Each structure stands twice: as C-alpha cells, then as structure tokens.
Amino acid sequence: MNATSFAATKQAWANVAREAARLANVKLQDLFADPKRVAALTFEAPHLIADFSKQRIDSAALASLGAVAQVADFDGLRAKMFAGEIVNNTERRAAMHWRLRAPDAPAEVKAVRAQMAAFATRIRPQIDAIVHLGIGGSDLGPRLVMDALRPLTHAGLQVRFAANVDGADVADAIEGLDPKRTLLIVVSKTFTTQETLANAEFVRAWGPAHLAAATAAPEKAIAWGVPAENVFAFWDWVGGRYSLWSSVSLVCALALKNNAFERLLAGAAEMDAHFRDAPFLANLPALSAAIQTWNREALGHGSYAAIPYAERLRLLPAWLQQLEMESNGKRVTRDGEALERSACAVTWGAAGTNAQHSFFQLLHQGVQEIPVEFIVNAGAQEGPPSHRAKVFANALAQAQALMAGKSEAQAKAEMLTKGVSAAEAERLGPHRAFPGNRASTMMSIDALSPEALGALLAFYEHRTFAQAVLAGVNPFDQWGVELGKEMANALLPALEGGAAPANADASTTAWLKRLR
Ligand code: F6P
Fold first, then answer.
1. 409 vs 94, 328, 342, 434, 435, CA distance in Å?
2. Is 189 designated active site?
3. What is the per-residue pLDDT for 501?
4. 135 lines ligand 1 (CB under 6 A)
5. Residue 298 C-alpha to ligand 1 middle, in angstroms?
C-alpha cells in the first residue's frame, strides 16, 4: 500500500472509530426517536429484506463504512471479480462462481449442466438412493440445498450424505440401502482429500451399481474408476466453498424436481445483478458486510449468531461457518502485511425456535453482547397452518427482548404483582433482569423457494467478499487448512503400526501410544 492510500485508509478507519465512540453508549431503543429510522435502515434485494434498525448504527456511521469501502476500492475489486480478473492473488486465480449461474454462462458451464440433465434423465429410473460423499465445500452446500428443498425431492428417492472420516458417518450413509439401486457420487475439487477418498473407497467396495464424480481434476476421478461419461467437471476458478452452483450439486440436479436446481441458479443470478450494479450504500450484501465489520471491528464483538427461524434452513449456520471463516479468517492483507484488525467474527448459530431453549440464555443474560442475525421465511410454510404465526412471534419477540431487556426494578415489580414476597423479589431481582440493549438484524426471504434460497446463499457469498474488501484480505484462498493436513499425514503411519515421527512433541507422542 502506498503512503497516500495508507493515510486515506487510516483516516477512514479513524472516522469509523469516531462514529463508534458516538454510538457505543447510546441506548438502542433511544435511536428509535428518529421516526425515519426503520425505513432508513431497511433495505431490499431480490427475494430478501433486511432491517438493520436494531443494530447500534445509524446512517452517518454506515456512511463512514461506505468511505472505508471507497478507499479499499470496493468498486474496483467488485468490477475485477465480475470481469473474471485475478482477485485470488495468492493462487493467481479468478473467482468466478457467479459465472456458474450467469444467464450468459460460458459454453463449458452450459455443457456440464446439459450433461447433468441428461444423466439425471437416464439414471433416475435405475436408482432408489444416492450417496453423496464430499467434505467442506464439497458437502455443506448441496447438503443444505437438499435439506432446505426437501419437499421437492423426487418421490421414493433416498439421499444420504457422508463427510466425516469417522467411519460412523459413512456406515450410516449406506445403512439399509440396496447397492444395486444406489448411485455413489464422489465430490472433491482436488480428488485428493483424505476423508472423501477413504469414504469413497469404503462405499465402492460395498458395490453400488453406479458411480459418478464431480471434480476439477477429472483425470484423477477416471483413474480412480469413475466412468468418464459420469465425471462432471468444474474449474479452478470456482473456490470449494463457492462451488454449490457447479456439478458439486449433481445430487440436487438429480434428486430435486420442478427444475429446482436451475431455479436456484436463477435466484442467485438475480442477487449477482443486484450486488454487481447497486452502489455500496444501497447494496444489501455490501451493507450487511458493513454491519458485520462494524460489529466486529468498531464495536469489538468477537462473534455473531446466525439464527434461521426456519427448520429447513437449519444447516445454514454450518455452511456459513465455512464460507465466512475459511474465507476471512486471515491475519494478513492481500499484500501480506499484518492486519490491524480482524477480518471477520466467529460465525455460529442454529435454527430457532430450538436455539431459544439452549444457548439463548447466554445471548440474553451472558456478560458479553453477541449480535444476532435472524432469518425468517415470510412465504408459505409447511405443516400445520397455525404454526406460522408462532414462528414469527418467537423470532420477533427474541429480537425485541434482546433490545428492550427488563430492568431489575421491572422484574421485582412483576414478582410483587404476582404475590411474591418483597424479600424473595429482592433476592431474585438480579437473576430475573435482562440488560437488553443488544443488537440484532431481522431478515426475511420471500419464500422457501429455490429462487429465494439461491438469492440468500449468493447474498452471503457477496457479503463475505465485501467484508474481505473492507478488511483488505483475499477471501478466496485457505492456506490455514494445510498445516493440520500435513501433520495428519505424518502421524498416520504411527497410528497404523509404524513408529512415531521423531519430531512429534511429548504430548502427541503419548497420545499416539494411547490411541494406537
Ligand atoms: O480443507 C479445506 C478444503 O480444502 C476446503 O476448502 C474444501 O471445500 C474442502 O477441503 C474439500 O476439498 P475437496 O473438494 O478438494 O475435496
């Protein structure tokens, strides 16, 4: 970074810090004195609405983050990504996952989609089950899509996933299936991942009638034994955690009816157009990235909870964890300089309402504030019609409770009205009080349709990119996963009867002996 941009960046962040100092001790509820607040902080994108009004932010603070985006060359980097230029500078690659769902996708992409469609038509009558083996980006996306769109699964087709190298996972995946009526899909960008290949070898030995693979290394899949015509390619310009739009989701193309996979891509393309064209301060993924950055960097919240109030989105937090933390869990900038601040918070979460009955206690009364992102499905819902209102009431109530809280005086007064003695009310007051003043975002998708799901997942991809731009990191590499893999390979022989590596530390050596 040259001296001028260094100074501009420093100044922009100083302005953000000044805005944060202005808002840090304000009561969230007091911000609603501005009658235009909800409208000013509610934004729309295809299939998605986000209300940031319960965040500790206002338009001036958002504008200060917009200024950071400007000095970070958000417009330039976004244009570079959509022009297919190299934005993954450490691996010297473009990041063109958006191209997989573009209406004018290149011929090679369309050819693989046609190959997938033809395979689907041919194979479906011959199978009752699909076993999908992959891990990380080769698992989480298609697993989430299948779970979210389960009602669109072709009748009578069982879909199983296994990722973990703990054998229980793959054993469960084939349990009760007839190998003669099963298709095994091995999904691995590199086709070298230890866990996936170990699982694939086990399932292949069980004797499934059909084998297919999705990979960016087709020659390796063919060498492993997948018939060439059943190998579905994707490309090194698709990062693993951005790959669900590719042949990685062959299982979805096979198992979902009503053209769901194509509709998923179309919904994502709608979000791509919004992200590509809208200016930062009217751009939902970018604004949401600004909020994430604000909470992490300006206000110092180390994590946030993503809580879909939709059972069919229960796997969203797991997919988001890889997307956000594998992308932005970095400690140096694109140029290799030490970061002055974190590029992302810890992502965690689970579906509501279940989460209310487990970790929401900590969100409401724990010492530290953890911002929450609520996602509801505003469209039709399955099951008993009367449940829909209850889901919404719970989501809205949790956001309201986090912000409003309940004072000790209020808690005591309530107890007294219920006939609790004054001494008991005094004793329980501190336990029954809620600090409140805790931030959240409320988002809705317009339906749990393939289109809306595609838009939602693309929204998160672009938010991750925008957050990386604000922080100055490359979100498209993941060198941090390598060291553990190398060490696992070095330790494996010792656990298979060989000697412990000479350079292993004493603790690891003791564990090798214990577990051998
Ligand atoms: O170890 C991390 C990782 O490389 C992820 O980035 C990737 O999604 C996953 O492993 C699986 O890799 P592959 O698709 O090559 O098997």
1. 58, 43, 39, 11, 12
2. no
3. 87
4. yes
5. 32
